[in-house]
Amino acid sequence: MSFAFLDGLHQSEVVLYLMILLGGLMTFEGVRQVINGEAGAARSRNRRMRMIARGLDEERIVEALLRNQPRGDKRARGPVGGLRRSLARANLPFGPGAVLAISAALACGIFFIASTWTPAPAAMSLALGLGLGLPYAIIDRIAIARQAKLSQQLPDALDMMARGLRIGHPLNVTLRRVARDMPDPVGSEFGLLEDRIRHGVDLATAFREFAERVDSEDAHYLSVCVGIQHGTGGNLARVLTVLSRVIRDRLNMRKKIRAISSEGRLSGLILTMMPFLIFGTIYSSTPSFFLDVKDHPVFLPVAAIVLGLTALQAVILNRLTNFDF
Fold first, then answer.
1. Nearest CA-CA partner of 230 in 217, 242, 240
2. PANTHER family recorded for this chain (predicted)?
3. Distance between CA atoms of 32 and 230, rounded to whole angstroms?
């Protein structure tokens, strides 16, 4: 092999080119390690495993995952207690104080905007209704979505546990495998479950706490099945397999019912939005149709009655087109 092209280079140029090559190789290696590190973090499938990978101790992990859970047997009651339970079911990283502060700020903003085109009492009512109700509704929807996602993941987690039990693994090993390999929310929840059992909590008690924390039908079914099997004995792997099949069949049936009732739900949505569409069309084309009578003493009561009837219609149509089984 000939290196004649190097003969015309000065020694300092050769050193410079070698340093550039070495710098390029080091840059490539640094980028590769960063990508591998990010991939390793991504392989931590759930929030609990990511906390463990960051080196957090178990006490801080449990505190973060159970931030809004009631301590001991004390359960807060009233609106604040309901808000705390919704935050716990949604597993959000903030407490009721932050929600109340956001609600107050939102109510002030809505009142400032609404007071420019409506009387002060109506603007105050609108601000209080939306400022207090909207954050709670959003949190409740997040909690419902998390429960639905956990119910979808639960059959796979139970199948994984059943396979581990069949080949002879102890229960805590199968729980640890689910906690390591499954994404949130079931991964972190089963990790907490495994921690409780490892610290000496009774099996039935740990699953009952899990069901109370998640507060879904499928979790309560799992808690009851494990409690009965723990008290009477039997093949836990078979119990988990049967329960997994039952939960999966219930989810499939729910999807079929939603598909069949989709036309009714769409009709209900159209009927609910129709008054607002009519109002927007008339107001955009002929604003005087409403502006000429807005100062009449009967206008606001009639408008309030119409809004109340529209809301009642939405509730009735929602009950007629959503089936609970």
1. 240
2. INTEGRAL MEMBRANE PROTEIN-RELATED, PILUS ASSEMBLY PROTEIN
3. 49
Number of other residues whose CB lies within 10 A of the CB of residue 35? 10
3-state helix, strand, coil in the chain (%, to 5): 80, 0, 20
72: left (phi over 0), alpha (psi -120 to 50) or beta: left
Q: Which residues contact 269 (CB under 8 A, 6 or more apart)?
A: none
Task: Give 52's DSSP letter.
Answer: H
Flag whether pLDDT at 28 surpasses 50: yes
Residue with tokens 């639960």: 154
Residue 78: partners with Cβ closer than 8 Å, 6 or more residues away: none
Q: How many angstroms separate the CA atoms of 129 and 109, rounded? A: 13
- Interatomic CA distance for residues 224 and 116, integer angstroms: 56
Predicted TM-score (pTM) above 0.90: no
Tokens, residue 322: 């959503």
The amino acid that residue 129 corresponds to is G
Question: What are phi and psi for residue 151, nearest 5 degrees?
Answer: -65, -35
CA distance 57 to 196: 15
* Lowest mean pLDDT, pick from 82-96, 102-116, 204-218: 82-96
How does 128-146 read in b/e, with b if 16+ C-beta sit within 10 Å?
eebbbeebeeebbebbeeb
What three-state secondary structure class fits 75? coil
Q: Does residue 142 contact residue 92 with C-beta atoms inside 8 Å?
A: yes
Angle between helices 236-260 and 262-285 (to 10 degrees): 40
Lookup: tokens for 74: 């004390």
Average of per-residue pLDDT values in the chain:
82
Q: Is there a contact between 70 and 76 (Cβ–Cβ < 8 Å)?
A: yes
- Contact assessment for residue 41 and residue 50, using Cβ atoms and an 8 Å cutoff: yes
202 contact partners, CB below 8 Å, separation of at least 6:
230
Q: Of 164, 165, 194, nearest to 65 (Cα)? A: 194
